[in-house]
Amino acid sequence: MKNKAPLKQLLWINLFALTFTVVFPSRLQSTEFPTSETRTFNSKLKEDSEIIQGFRKKLAYMADYALMDAIPPEGIKKPFYIENFIETWKCFLDNLMALDSIGRAYTTLAASGDPMVKRESFKTAYWVFLIEYRFSLEWINALAENHEKGELLNQPLQELGLPAGSYADFKTHVQSVEKSVELIVKDRVYFSYGSKDNLEARASQIQEDKNSILKMNSLSKLVPLAKVTPPKANPMEFSGWFPLNRETAPWKGKPNPWFSNASPISLRQVEFLVKNLKPGDMLFSHREWDLPNVGLPGYWNRAALFIGDSAARADQFNLPEIAEMMGRFDFKGDLEGLLKKNYHDLYPLSAQLDGKGHIPRLIEATPDGVRFKTLESFVEADSLCVLRPRLSTMEKAYALMKGFKYLGRPFDFNYDYDSDSAIAGSELLYLIYKPEGKRKGLIFPVRTMLGNHLSSPNAIVAQFDSQFETLAQQTDLIAFLDSRGWPEPAEFMGMGEFRQSWKRPKWRISLPNLLPKTAHFPAPPGDG
């Protein structure tokens, strides 16, 4: 197996993936682009081109890593190697689906009446198409002589909403004649716009990826590109790889002038949470229009620690045992006083209101690092749940202290839970509740992917389901707010619905013939 060091090359790749913003067609406010919006489009296109290149490098790396090193010949029957291989395949698909959404967004924009937007959007959609095509073929070709590896990938991938046999269907789709003809047709449209390209990387990578594709499927030997007669299908439209129910998945990260932001969770529901949550609670959310943690399959994809405000902390930790604990730290005072003393530079931020007048009540590992966050910003989601650890108040006090300790740490784009030098998502919860000495802590489920150990938010919710009403149960459900997606309002749901939530696919796949009945979810209004 390769050394972990090369994974560090992916640091910036995930950063771009986590901050990408695209447009949701049903919520487009206009397909016309005035001068000011054209300038905005150009700026956004330049930014998105970096993101696309990031996905390209990541797909290339994962294909090479998984196919060359994930399962050595002697390890084909060993659970560790099998898990690592399958998790890497899930990661590959997760990134492929995310990239597919980017291409679909630009395909939609290619229908714009503005000539420049039409041209640049088509070129970008074609660029994405070739990236997907090339690295899908590379994956398939590398497994062509290894039937056992291919069969491993044919098992159901519940976290992605794919049933048994999906790898075989994927191969059929990628290697189809229709896909080859689509390449030919789109290539002619691309060259009709002229050879000049304002984005140097796009032009060079389009040529490189196209040549690689032609070499792999031998299409260049069958028919010259210039002499192919386009079929009747619309040459401006691209077929998907794993089409989403929504034409594109709108992604939130940076301001988008064409995206109308809204949350199905109401202010009244937020007020309920503020009154009922306690410091030490763990929050998890799912955002249909967000792109958090690409590469970590699963419905639940964000995690945070609830710390409350200073009043809530004083109320919960004003106990004799906490005062005794302070004495062990040679501190005369309460927990709040110790936090002020030890973290005097960052502590003031815990009481600093945001632009909307909200006070931070959470600590979250974000792409910008471990930060204080407001509850109101975290609940801008389609689904939210709160789990309360079955631990003593003293253990929760230790957890808060560790949470403050990690403030300012950078985001862990390697998702390496064996180190706390950088922290990502649920890794924060994993570290602060990790059993140490006499502290009971929480035992989180750990998986292996790309050679690293990690514990995803979805795996933690799945663990709750498996441990429910057993002696192993470690947490209690405090709240579960669920929505079918914007603009449907969220509602408080029961235990039965929550225990099944982790089985939902992260992406809403719209291939009915591939989906088992148990994996069906109603499409949001307006999906058709």
Name the average pLDDT. 77
Helix content: 40-55%
Strand content is 5-15%
Low-confidence stretches: 1-34, 220-233, 243-260, 509-528
> Strand sequence of the main sheet, in spatial order?
4-3-2-1-5-8-9
Count the beta strands. 9
Largest sheet: 7 strands, antiparallel
One letter per element, helices H and strands E, the order comes to HHHHHHHHHHEEHHHEEHEHHEEHEEH
Query: Structural class of the secondary structure composition?
Result: alpha+beta
**Separation of termini?**
46 Å
Form type: globular
Number of helical runs? 18
Instruction: Please tell me how large the radius of gyration is.
Output: 24 Å
3D architecture notes:
The chain is of the alpha+beta class. Helix content is 44%, strand content 9%. The radius of gyration is 24 Å and the shape is globular.
Descriptors for this entry?
18 helices, globular, disordered C terminus
Any chance you could write out the topology, listing elements then pairs?
Elements lengths: L10 H8 L16 H36 L8 H31 L5 H28 L4 H6 L13 H9 L2 H16 L7 H18 L1 H4 L44 H10 L5 E5 L15 E5 L3 H8 L2 H9 L6 H8 L17 E7 L2 E6 H4 L4 E7 L3 H13 L21 H6 L14 E3 L2 E3 L2 H11 L7 E8 L8 E2 L2 H7 L27
Antiparallel strand pairs: 1-2, 1-5, 2-3, 3-4, 5-8, 6-7, 8-9
Short note summarizing the structure:
The protein has 18 helices and nine strands. It has 528 residues and is of the alpha+beta class.
